[in-house]
Specification:
There is one protein chain. The protein is an alpha/beta fold and 672 residues long. The N terminus is likely disordered. The protein has an eight-stranded mixed beta sheet with strand order 7-6-8-4-9-10-5-11, with helices on both faces. It has three domains: 30 residues; 237 residues, no CATH class; 274 residues, Alkaline Phosphatase, subunit A (3-Layer(aba) Sandwich), CATH 3.40.720.10. 45% of the residues lie in helices and 12% in strands. 41% of the residues are buried. The chain has 23 helices and 16 strands.
């Protein structure tokens, strides 16, 4: 009996040790409590909660699609699946951005993070944040039908100054009660599921150097993954609204995006204000309208080639500045000087001073009358098009050529959105021997490459070729360092190099069969720094060339009428006899009866150049009025002494701003 009793005690001891070891092992991995659910590793629990919200965001996109099926019904099933998969990239991005506080609270390597009070606060914050995330998606299920775009941060300005919001909200709640029930259901599911996911109740007994070292490394890895996630990957620029255009057409971009992403990405960008300078639409249309009516003269399917020369200020062009240096000014563009005499030249002005704002002005005839570029603004998700998008239905092939690193300035995304089928950049060129080490492929080589690729396009085609060598540090290949002379500005030697590349390009394409059936426009994206007084002034610092080589070589000459980048699209379409109505914030440069003007915007000030005067307007009143030619140094403000001129120009710029702002806000940049 004694032996048996001792054996029992020994056996119980061994069993106890095994049980304790087994229990210890379970505490370090996972633990099942009496309640159903998961209890265990903090990092896994945090990840499961985030994945739950990601799933609900994905399901809300499906509901967004189903509730707006009449709008999205034409999407093929395979493309729809691709859109839903692409949407996860934007869902994950905003999920990580907005849940960063929750992630940090659960990742910092300190023992107090497992405390019940601390976790209660963290989970409460998690539920609040993600309930609002889901709420914005559900609001857009019905709000989308009114705007045809995802809600952006300008909604807060509407709430602040909308006036009718307090009256509209109750009606909105009443009319769309079922959406609220769906949202509440999603929130309850989120809370019920996430409450089943628990972490261990107490910290480890020992928390020495090893613990802090290991968990500090884990913390660093988590931060790296989170930052990569909300950037949308390892590309040059974080994903934005315009990135969605990579996955589908402009029309269907809202299905790729989600509403919290659209709000977050535009929250730091200033929104436009709705204008009511004119009380009636009829009065507004009498002063200015961006609507262009189709022509009935018969459409001529010319090829279209637009060449945008980097920083090609009018100041650099010798032919246009013979009066400088007492008639001794030589300029830095001998090729362009010769081309002017073969085409139609117009006194052009850039709508902006940056490349990223120039391309939408040139291709889409949309200036940037706000602090942000269109493609980075609150309204980048709007529906808009370009000359490529307008001509594609007529059988045009379309291509954009820029030797920079793919992703630079978001050009690849923008061109995809507005109708370009092909994008040729540094990646497609695929020969790093011609890389300038800074910006991209050198102009001479890339221009020749582009000529060959254009020759392979099916006619008719629309193509844009964009130079880049005249960027700081103003690269010039070594073999040309003593060929092209230096000027008074550091950029001017590289301007000569780009001009040389342009000349070689023109020589090449003149031998191609499509050349004589092509409208060629050569202009600049913006100006460089100026040297002479006029080109350093408020008007001259926007002066660029606009040269058009028409197929009818008899149509040539120099026009001193004012033009702007947004005039390029309507001028081309008018010459072709384009037969559809369209929206463009410019005019036909060749139409003498149309208003000829240029408008640009800087830091809240609008500048209008028109009929020999320049007016500065702050949105509510005219600040100054000067004679463009007689008062280059702007010494005599005529705003008080010329009330009739001021009033006429003020009426015009008010009409232009009202059309621009309201159409941008209401997403009316395309005709139905």
């Amino acid at each position: 009996m004694v032996k048996s009793s001792n054996f029992a005690r020994i056996n119980r001891g061994h069993m106890g040790k095994r049980a304790r070891k087994k229990g210890t092992k379970r505490r370090t991995v996972t633990k099942r409590s009496g309640k159903k659910g998961f209890t265990g590793n903090m990092y896994v629990a945090m990840t499961l909660k985030l994945l739950m919200v990601l799933l609900l965001m994905f399901l809300s996109r499906i509901l967004f699609y189903l509730f707006n099926l009449s709008y999205f019904h034409s999407i093929p099933f395979t493309e729809l699946i691709q859109i839903f998969i692409a949407g996860l990239r934007f869902d994950l991005s905003v999920l990580l951005i907005l849940n960063l506080p929750f992630i940090l609270m659960n990742s910092i390597p300190f023992k107090f993070r497992v405390g019940k009070g601390y976790q209660g606060f963290a989970n409460g914050l998690f539920y609040i944040i993600n309930s609002l995330v889901l709420l914005t998606n559900f609001i857009d299920i019905v709000y989308f039908r009114f705007t045809l775009k995802r809600m952006t941060s300008d909604i807060f300005k509407f709430i602040e100054v909308g006036g009718d919001f307090d009256r509209l909200l109750p009606q909105f709640i009443k009319d769309f009660w079922y959406v609220q029930l769906l949202w509440i259901g999603f929130v309850l599911i989120m809370i019920l599921v996430c409450r089943k996911i628990r972490i261990k109740d107490s910290p480890p007994r020992t928390m020495g150097f090893r613990y802090y070292a290991v968990h500090s490394v884990i913390f660093a890895v988590i931060i790296f993954l989170v930052v990569t996630g909300f950037r949308g990957g390892f590309q040059l620029r974080p994903i934005s609204l315009v990135t969605a255009g990579k996955y589908t057409s402009t029309r269907d971009v809202p299905l790729v995006l989600n509403t919290p992403f659209a709000i977050v990405k535009t929250f730091t960008h200033s929104s436009l204000e709705r204008k009511a300078y004119f009380s009636s639409e009829a009065d507004l249309e009498k002063v200015y309208s961006p609507l262009h009516s189709g022509m009935k003269s018969g459409f001529k399917p010319y090829n279209v080639l637009i060449i945008v020369m980097e920083s090609f200020s009018r100041e650099h062009i010798g032919f246009l500045n013979k009066h400088l240096d007492n008639g001794r000014y030589r300029g830095f563009t001998p090729v362009f000087d010769s081309l002017i005499q073969r085409g139609t030249y117009v006194e052009g002005f850039a709508n902006e001073k940056t490349s990223i704002k120039a391309i939408p002005a040139i291709l889409s005839s949309i200036p940037s009358l706000m602090n942000d570029a269109l493609t980075q603004s609150t309204y980048s998700g709007n529906r808009y098009t370009s000359i490529a998008g307008l001509l594609k239905p007529k059988g045009y092939s379309t291509a954009f050529f820029h030797g920079g690193t793919n992703g630079t300035m978001g050009y690849d995304m923008y061109t995809r959105v507005v109708g370009f089928d092909h994008y040729f950049g540094r990646t497609e060129y695929n020969d790093e021997r011609d890389y300038d080490g800074k910006w991209g492929i050198r102009d001479e080589e890339f221009f020749q490459y582009s000529a060959q690729r254009m020759n392979e396009l099916k006619q008719p085609f629309v193509a844009l070729l964009y130079s880049l060598s005249a960027h700081h540090p103003y690269f010039v290949p070594g073999k040309y360092r003593h060929v092209f002379r230096e000027g008074k500005l550091p950029i001017q030697q590289s301007i000569m190099y780009s001009d040389f590349a342009l000349g070689r390009f023109m020589d090449t394409i003149q031998r191609m069969p499509w050349y004589r059936n092509t409208i060629i426009v050569i202009t600049a994206d913006h100006t460089s720094e100026g040297y002479y007084p006029y080109y350093k002034g408020p008007v001259g610092q926007y002066a660029i060339p606009i040269l058009i080589l028409f197929p009818d070589e008899r149509q040539r000459g120099i026009y001193r009428e004012i033009a702007q980048q947004t005039d390029i699209l309507p001028t081309i379409l008018s010459y072709m006899g384009y037969d559809k109505d369209y929206i463009a914030f410019g005019t036909d440069m060749m139409d003498r009866s149309a208003p000829h003007f240029s408008i640009h915007y800087v830091s809240g000030i609008y500048t209008l150049i028109k009929e020999g005067y320049v007016l500065e307007f702050n949105g509510s009143e005219s600040l100054s009025l000067y004679d463009v030619h007689a008062d280059v140094s702007r010494k005599q403000n005529l705003v008080s002494s010329h009330p009739e001129v001021r009033q006429q120009m003020e009426q015009f710029i008010k009409a232009y701003i009202q059309q621009y702002n309201n159409r941008m806000i209401e997403n009316r940049l395309l005709l139905p």
